[in-house]
Specification:
Chains A, B, C, D: Catalyzes the phosphorylation of D-fructose 6-phosphate to fructose 1,6-bisphosphate by ATP, the first committing step of glycolysis. The structure is a homotetramer. Chain A has eleven helices and eleven strands. A seven-stranded mixed β-sheet of chain A has the order 3-2-1-4-5-10-11, with helices on both faces. In chain A, α7 (about 200-215) links the parallel β7 and β8 (about 220-225). In chain A, about 40% of the residues lie in helices and about 15% in strands. Chain A is elongated, with a radius of gyration of 22 Å. By secondary structure, chain A is an alpha/beta fold. The longest helix of chain A is centred in the middle third of the chain and has 22 residues, at about 145-165. Chains in contact: A-B, A-D, B-C, C-D. At the B-C interface, α1, α5, α6, α9 and α11 of B face α1, α5, α6, α9 and α11 of C.
Chain lengths: ~325, ~325, ~325, ~325
């Protein structure tokens, strides 16, 4: 245990995701377990710059393990991208006696932490919190599993009405530049076609696939479209395109949007958050810094923040085959 | 009991809604209970015209009481709006020995039934199935209660992310020309403002209301917008308008769409469906025709189809006051 | 408006139910709307006796409309049943300047309020909060609709496994001496038999009914048993009894228990809570006292507490017929 | 591809679990994809012995990916444990021209398959379907993830009422001789103590832990108890024991029971089922036999059935520490 660490800060930054509260709770209680003070930093890096701090004890985080959102609020801070902003943040942290911080967020939040660490030799530790699962060094980001369940539950509802009317639905899901949500939720929801950024098969293949589905006797079709897909048409344009080329289809569009970021976290995300929080705090206490705590092969693992930021996640190609076979 | 009725048809027509399957099940089993044959008519009036019929016994409707959608499929039929279409339908019904039918659907479906009844003296009975709750002669249409729960659950998720970021969301919900869903789900979800067709207070009032909400210290705002509202701007235009006038707000839009029509029905809708189905069949057997079976003051009640079609539902004005007070 | 009322207390008492938080929120915000102070009384009458009070403003009740349980906590107080206990409570209330209170609870809580009102001429108003729906003067108690949805969702899951194994399940649900939950959730879940206190048809009828169900080709059976039923055997004894008389059945038991009291309230319960809270506060301000605010025929209505306590709710006999027909 | 395999059977056996239907769908569609006939075998090995077979095409498994239970039904067969029973089964399979089968089930089902394979050199492949996650050779069994979500959602509801009344609840969960469900759902639900078969710390430690929880200011306590725990007392006896030693506690018991086996599968279980089904069929076509298809380190992997049966799963000891820290 490092004797130098007496006070650890914790913040959530960037887009929120289910499980962030469970991770905050874990960081706070692990600090308490090791008799370390814990300071909640509100509104991400902006709150750090403004010194928006609050001491947190184990009872501050009662009854939040199952709550969506983040009690510390989140924000994107333009100021923290400037040297002056980071200087202010450093001053506020040192004034408050904070020796290290744990940031729960995504790529952008880690980049900020990494630069800050380089500039001030300030111990930082990252926990990957985003529904998009697009962070290198962890097979699962916090909130991803919950978002998948939210998406399949919604598509199940859409399927009810789609199959009652023999309709085709384009359903747009989140995921930024990665197709993880689309691919997994698409398979889970039994989608007839899945459009992801990692694989652009073009419009012709889409029509073909829909014709095949129609010919096979299916009563409805769901096409899951990742927001980052490369097909070059919005879901609304896709609707027009398909209606023009396949007038026999009654096409509808559903853009799922921000509901995907909310909701009570799944058991997986709650347990993952608990594990990551423990490891983040204990790694700091062991003198480690500038790592992201992730999960690889069901084991908690550290990855240097620099790698986590630069590395790219990959789509499991096996899943593309599985998806194809499932639409037989 | 009418000795003339030996075979009753049942169909779902128009937009589908949760509880339609529970109503089909009730019609089928009530027929079986009274030793009447029951014929499922597929794809609404179009299937009637095409003779798309199938005999249904009590075991045909096992395990559907909790399923969204409609196992009989639904459709809108242009042909049934023509005299020739209805003639074909009449021929198919009589060829199949069907003596009466129960149609589960909304305004448009009832209009078709009413005309058909007038033309052919054919016994018909309507069950109000739509999430919009816009049918006269019943305080609740089938699926309305379920849709309200779907909407509040989704807005609860949106609220998680809205309050993590101090954001304003415009959430568009269904309801056609009626604000029932928006008003009730808006109150249920704790919306800061609700825009419904029945009350157009204008854009200025909206800004005022948002300013009041901001001033009162609220960390996020949800505005529920009925698809039929009269404010003269789409939710996307509302976003632009508010961002222009209140640049301090980060505004997002969510159009809930067709997920509102699907999903497993609530207990209320399942029980209501069971009651309506019993009454529809038994009313036919008592020699009644051309009525809608609805619920008024917690009692099952018949309303002439003609009135059900022409009558207008009204918004409970008390709820507008409640909504105002809740946003204190 | 009564000029004498400047401060209103609010408490939850007895067993908790979903929607209590929404009702607290409504009371607090309606007070704020009318510029009346509102005091939260913690832990029911026991907290009243101990002066466990806290001032509540409109922001004290942010983000609780969708939360189960009660932020004011609840308890049963033996002391409040004594004259001395009530004297202490009166002193604490007057010391705190509280002019009236709203109690959210059931029969027992109302009885306490009624006696207190008689003894001290203290203005009181009741809001019916219990999942059991066993209170006279309201067709729906707060939490009842949510509990029905909880029960049917759980039985849907049990049905999955029951029908996979051709099993019979006895499912015990709450409801105290009333069969409302069992009867409605039983119909909603498609139960093959429903045992309620209001109708004891005996063990022989149960066997008959199960034999009929088996003969009709059903692959599984669910029997919903109200905790207050009069059949004279526990669900565990029923299991033994049926296994002895119908050895072809593999029988299981599930006692749903307290999960029925928790969970996020349904839209119906949230709206009802909002309406009842408004009416409770405004009735006090109009000089009324000693009433329960309920809903009858979809309209908010006042019933003297005395009647609410003594009156009995009745089972809708029509539902028994519907249930019979549904098991055809 | 093996030229000898033209027809593959599929069955579900033993206790059912969510995701079995998704696995059946995957087996059926993978067969269709490879132009292999697929035969559904009803009611597990008993149906195999009785020749209860039905041909299945890709449309036979429409709309089941999200359904709990198993459309093929399941059963435990005493007869299949006898040599005569297996002989009958072999005859029925060969009469129907079935060349191999995929069995979805647990330990017992795999033992049957393994013996059958040895006796008749009949190609078999296992897919682990059980909520208990107690099978060697896979980090996740089908249905386990869904059951975890079901359990935490129910405990969330119980927590609502527990914390409203400052109560202690003993919640018994499934898991047979393994504590996976209890440990993970316990952490996920924020349980104050978790009793699992793998770690018996005795009654004294339980009291200590509850005293610590009380002292730390927690308003309620949830103790999750695995059905296989070794503490030597039932949950009902635990209630009595604690009430005797800690009379300040109002203790309640909830036995979750069979609802844990039902419900719509999580996205994870649906995707896992799809992947396992593809691999099972394709492994048979590659000439492999007598394996279980599982997932290890996020990759699909084969384990000889013999090992899968004999091997033991282990509790992740790290999770015990995490659980301890979380109750700080």
């Amino acid at each position: 245990m490092s004797l130098n660490i007496k006070k650890i800060g914790v913040l959530t930054s960037g887009g929120d995701s289910p499980g962030m509260n469970a991770a905050i709770r874990s960081v706070v209680r692990t600090c308490a377990f090791h008799n370390i003070e814990c300071i909640g930093i509100y509104r991400g890096y902006q709150g750090m710059i403004e010194g928006d701090f609050k001491e947190m004890g184990p009872r501050s985080v009662n009854n939040i393990v199952n709550k969506g959102g983040t009690i510390l609020k989140s924000a994107r801070s333009v100021e923290f991208r400037t040297a002056e902003g980071r200087k202010k943040a450093y001053e506020k942290l040192t004034q408050a006696g904070i020796d290290a911080f744990v940031v729960i967020g995504g790529d952008g939040s880690f980049t900020g932490a990494e630069i800050f660490n380089k500039e001030y030799k300030f111990p930082v530790m990252g926990i990957p919190g985003t529904i998009d699962n697009d962070i290198y060094g962890t097979t699962h980001t916090l909130g991803y599993d919950t978002a998948l369940n939210t998406v399949v539950e919604v598509i199940d509802k859409i399927r009810d009405t789609a199959s009652s009317h023999n309709r085709l639905f384009f359903v747009e899901v989140m995921g930024r530049d990665a197709g993880h949500i689309a691919l997994n939720a698409g398979i889970g929801a039994g989608a007839e076609e899945i459009l992801i950024p990692e694989e652009d098969l073009g419009l012709e293949r889409l029509l073909e696939s829909l014709r095949k589905s129609k010919a096979s006797g299916k009563s409805s079709s769901i096409v899951v479209v990742s927001e980052g897909d490369k097909i070059g048409k919005s879901v609304f344009e896709l609707k027009d395109y398909v209606e023009e080329h396949m007038p026999e289809y009654d096409v509808r569009v559903s853009v799922l949007g921000h509901m995907q970021r909310g909701g009570s976290p799944s058991c997986f995300d709650r347990v993952l958050a608990s594990r990551l929080g423990v490891k983040a705090v204990e790694s700091i206490l062991e003198g480690k810094s500038n790592y992201m705590v992730g999960i690889i092969n069901d084991k908690i693992a550290l990855t240097p923040l620099e790698q986590a930021i630069k590395g790219e996640t990959e789509i499991d190609l096996e899943l593309l085959r599985v998806s194809d076979i499932m639409t037989t």
